[in-house]
Amino acid sequence: DGSYLAEFLIEKGYEVHGIIRRSSSFNTGRIQHLYKDRSTHQEGSMKLHYGDMTDSTCLVRLIHEIKPDEIYNLAAQSH
Domain NAD(P)-binding spans what residues (predicted)? Predict the structure, then answer.
């Protein structure tokens, strides 16, 4: 699951970014202790970005902005 991978990578010193859909209910309980909330400017080890895994323009923009060394996709289809 993504929260376990995020914790593992952060413990290894990685800078971790995640994507959350704007239309989603903000269900981040499992990663709440890890992320940086841009609206409150609280620092954390994980940065969340609004986006959609099915929107290639959004993904290209985020990849260009973040310049990641590695990408892990643990997104699941929502019903």
Answer: 1-79
